[in-house]
Model the fold of this input.
Amino acid sequence: MTLQWTAVALFLYVEIGILVILCLPFISARRWQSIFQLRIWSCLARFWNKMFLTMIIVLIVLFLDAVREVRKYSAKELGTDAKLQPNMFDHLHMKLFRAQRNLYISGFAVFLWLVMKRVVTLINQLASVSGITAALQAQADSANQAAKKYMENNEMLKQTLMEGKGEKATAEGMELLRKEVRKLKEELKTSADALKNSQLEADVMKKQMEGLAREYDRLLKEHQELQNLQDSGNKKKD
Done:
């Protein structure tokens, strides 16, 4: 195996290892997001897009070169001429095997490179959604506790009004009721604003998830095309 294909094979093994680590079930998405937010990754983020495009171009060029080699050594004319010389026939089969190996290595390297980038993006999106969900749950719990407290206060006010005697007790009870009503209106307005903001954030996340789903479908389609191309190469060999 030449130096360039050895490098591609090592790159493929590194991709497989990284994807296995990213898919470990006991590491949560929020933990991965905290790791991605380290200072070292923020420094590398400036060069990430350039590095991603460069690796895609290099791997696609190597993949096309492997396709050319497979087609070259799968030609029927070469096979017919090689039958006249057994040594040449074995040599051509060895060349074809290496070309097909290089095709598989480069093809899966391209595919896993795209998948790895998408997995990192999905992990970050999942961590953001989990954070929003936890915040909404905390707001809901706080609203439930406030409602319970208000119900208890209303019961106390009712008892005060029922037990009180004269206009003085009634006036004090009405004043307490007015204060509670004003307080409830203010907190209701605050809760409505928070709910509106949460709904806007949820709509944004929904649109992002739909875009990610379309991108995932596109990646599956590209993988299927690569697989079909490999199958056509195997059929030519047969």
